[in-house]
Amino acid sequence: MDFGLTETQELIRRSAREFLKDESNSETIRSVASGNHDALEKLWKRMLELGWPALIIPEEFGGAGFSFSDLAVLLEELGATLAPVPIVESAITSWIIERYGSESMKSEILPQISSGDILLTPSIVERSGSWDTSSTTVAATKSGTNLVITGEKRFVAFAQQATHALATIRLDDGQPALITIPIWKATGVHQTPMDHVAGVPVSSITFNEVVVPEANIIATGNTAIKAVEELISAGGVARAAQLAGLGRAVLDTTVSYAANREQFGQPIGSFQAVQHHLAEMAIASKQVNHLAHSAAYSFSRDGYSYERAAQAKIAASEKISALCWTAHQCHGAIGFTWEHDLHLYTRRALAWKTDYGDANFHKSNLADAMGL
Question: Which of 112, 195, 236, 237 is the most exposed place for a label (fewest CB within 10 A)?
């Protein structure tokens, strides 16, 4: 088996690195983290022009028609530069709509996602903090051909930039459903920005008798549960790919620092204890990289491997956050200062490790899937 990148993937990686080197620099990351949404929207607009949000949308709906593996290559580079954009949110919601939406829904929504006219963000988590659909309490009451939705979603990434939420709700009969809800300046929708470690906009969304057409429902019952499970798996693999890039960037920075920082008249990289740290970081980075791309490869138009997705997210959640703390130790005091960029990576790693289920969530689900 060839574990290398295809010609197309090499092109994606090279062009992404060239673009992100200038556009997603430390100044931009810090600006967005401080609440400058103009910088975020400017960067997102440039990526729309490059066609990145439409990468895995089929050509018939205005997308590029690339694979999830191709997307993972792009996400790794975005993770390496901490690009504060909703690529993952847009990609996985479009993936779910293409897989589970009706033909009319796909024809209406996917071309608008490709053009940037619509941006969806997953809205699954509620007060309990769980990604499990059984915890859904947001209620939908039927009214003619509409639904009246009431409840709250929390930790919704890029809600302030999104036009729609891809949300789980509970219908009158108690069945779960997955639905698209307009949230951009919509009547009855209230957003509360949250001070989040990620350094990107995160909000809670309150729905106060929001009227939504019943036609916006993507799936109900067991099909909705299956769709949400796939959404979480896709998001987990996407985050694992980003964490792989983040880990690689932190490793490279730490190796460079250890090679140039002198103590006792010699580079600290010559000390055995530091070498052991660097070796462990390199192993962790490679492990996550291989697992993330293996999981991404398992995704296709016909399905995906939940086991690979869970393994990738578990490894990424546990190993990359630990890698960042080891990097702080290797950097010494400077690594803990606000002026150094290392804390930006650590904060993002801590946020991403819980997105789309933390390690314990996926370990539990993986054990259930294996009958343990």
Answer: 195
Reported as a single tens digit per residue, the pLDDT across 72-117 is: 999 999 999 999 999 999 999 999 999 999 999 999 999 999 999 9
Lookup: tokens for 50 = 């490059």
* C-alpha distances out from residue 333 to 69, 243, 342, 368, Å: 39, 24, 12, 44
Q: Rounded to whole angstroms, what are the CA distances from 54 to 30, 153, 159, 173?
A: 27, 26, 19, 36
CB atoms within 10 A of CB 161: 18
> How far is Cα 121 from Cα 149, in angstroms, rounded to an integer?
17
Coil vs helix vs strand at 168: strand
Q: How many CB atoms lie within 10 A of CB 340?
A: 16
Helix extents (H) in 205-341:
221-260, 272-298, 306-331
Q: What is the CA radius of gyration of the chain?
A: 21
Neighbours of 256 (CB within 10 A): 11
Residues 6-43: tens digit of each pLDDT: 999 999 999 999 999 999 999 999 999 999 999 999 99
- The pLDDT of residue 1 is 47
Provide the 3-class DSSP secondary structure of residue 174. Answer: coil
132, amino acid identity: D
Q: Which domains does the chain have, with CATH numbers?
A: 7-115 (1.10.540.10), 120-222 (2.40.110.10), 229-369 (1.20.140.10)
For 178-222, give the DSSP string: EEEEE-TT-TTEEEEEE--TTSS-EEEEEEEEEEEEGGGEEEEHH
Report the candidate in 360, 348, 363 with the shortest Cα–Cα distance to residue 32: 348
Cβ neighbours of residue 8 under 8 Å, at least 6 residues apart? 66, 70
Tokens 């810090």 correspond to what residue? 30
DSSP helix/strand/coil, 333: helix
Distance CA 87, CA 28 (A): 16
Instruction: For residue 352, give the amino acid letter.
Output: W
Which run of H or of E encompasses 50?
A: helix 37-50
